[in-house]
Amino acid sequence: MVFRQRLLACTRHLIKTYFFSRTAENYAKTRPSTFSASCFHENQKHFLPDCFSHPRYGFNNDYKCYFLSAIPLLIVYVYYKKYHILPCVEAATIRTDSPRSQFNFIADVVEGSANSVVCIDIKNTQRLDFFAWTPPSMSNGSGFIIDSDGLILTNAHVVMGHPQSAIQVKLANGTVYPGKVEDIDVHSDLAAIRIKPKGKLSPLKLGESKSLRAGEWVIAMGSPLTLSNTVTAGIVSSAHRTSSELQLHGKDMHYIQTDASITFGNSGGPLINLDGEVVGINSMKVAEAGISFAIPIEYAKIFLERSKNRKSDPSSTKRYLGITMIGLNKDILRELQYRDHHVAKDIQEGAIVWKVVIGSPAHRGGLVPGDIVVEINGSKVKSSNTVYEVMEKDSVLNMKIFRGNGYYEVVIYPEDIV
């Protein structure tokens, strides 16, 4: 037992001296009590502990040092697991009780959702960049995958209003696919884009916005300025902000108000709750107030259901006009007259054109903002819904409008959206 203890002690000393000190003088200065002068060779700087020169154990200093140095290595090999001669080192593990691993909930949601967010780039096919020799970008936005076969949901204003253009969809892994608008709804500002990927994609799960509460955390994801995987977070201020409160006339909708920043190019991206479910589609931001608004996901579910029904019934093809209208009533007519807007006295109802998308069928047909539509295909226009209802039935629209001081007629050919 005593021999084994001394042998192990000598082994530890030899290992230390073998790796950390190659001369007897240096080690003797630091550990003078462990070694004696008789252990040193005159012609060699190597040294041996006294235990190896004791006659009882059969060792003397005439042996070569490299032979004796092999003994502790053999002892280490034999007794390592049983006596633990060398210290055991274990790999570091991640602390599961740290605040970073327990409360970094936003990072957990982003990690599971980032691969489903895409960047939508609108390319001008009529021009080529002088240096890159590729079509330049006209605008860009965001979207997210809702079907593993390549169906993407985004805002309508991201893809419409760009005639003679091509849509490019860039996935999170950098792969770029050409996209095609499969369906569009200008009223709810939603559009569906179809790509043909080489493999299955990772869709996001659609949640429910009606269960949102004020103060609940939400995460806005998108690709502003084509910078993919851009994340902002905030809380919900209101889950039912009506369009009338936002001064959005002609839209009978409500929106999700949040302080999560929705910047330029973030439109069309998902608004996600902490369960990783999409509860809204990023839509617009009031820059001066620092608040943003998203379209509730319930509108997207209705839009997708109608799109599915139109695909099964080819006769119900969706048409695109490219205008935003406001239905006229007594209050609006009084306001127009107060602002010196030329309105005929016999006009009591109709729809005033508020916005016209450049390059749209309405723009090509001659409509301009401020025109008042009073008749369409022989029917009196009572509100903006009258125009949309006739447009869904007829492929040619003969409109009677009031502009300036007189009445005019325009012919518009809406575009079919497959």
TrEMBL record:
GO terms for molecular function: serine-type endopeptidase activity. Residues 301-405 form the PDZ domain. It catalyses: Cleavage of non-polar aliphatic amino-acids at the P1 position, with a preference for Val, Ile and Met. At the P2 and P3 positions, Arg is selected most strongly with a secondary preference for other hydrophilic residues. Keywords: Apoptosis, Hydrolase, Membrane, Mitochondrion, Protease, Serine protease, Transit peptide, Transmembrane, Transmembrane helix, Zymogen. Its main location: mitochondrion. GO terms for biological process: apoptotic process; mitochondrion organization; positive regulation of apoptotic process; proteolysis. It is a single-pass membrane protein. InterPro entries: PDZ, PDZ_6, PDZ_sf, Peptidase_S1_PA, Peptidase_S1C. Its EC number is 3.4.21.108. SMART domains: PDZ (SM00228). It is found in: Mitochondrion intermembrane space; Mitochondrion membrane. GO terms for cellular component: mitochondrial intermembrane space; mitochondrial membrane. PANTHER family: SERINE PROTEASE FAMILY S1C HTRA-RELATED (PTHR22939), SERINE PROTEASE HTRA2, MITOCHONDRIAL (PTHR22939:SF129). Serine protease that shows proteolytic activity against a non-specific substrate beta-casein. Promotes or induces cell death either by direct binding to and inhibition of BIRC proteins (also called inhibitor of apoptosis proteins, IAPs), leading to an increase in caspase activity, or by a BIRC inhibition-independent, caspase-independent and serine protease activity-dependent mechanism. Can antagonize antiapoptotic activity of th/Diap1 by directly inducing the degradation of th/Diap1. Belongs to the peptidase S1C family. This is Serine protease HTRA2, mitochondrial. It comes from Parthenolecanium corni. The lineage of its organism: Eukaryota, Metazoa, Ecdysozoa, Arthropoda, Hexapoda.
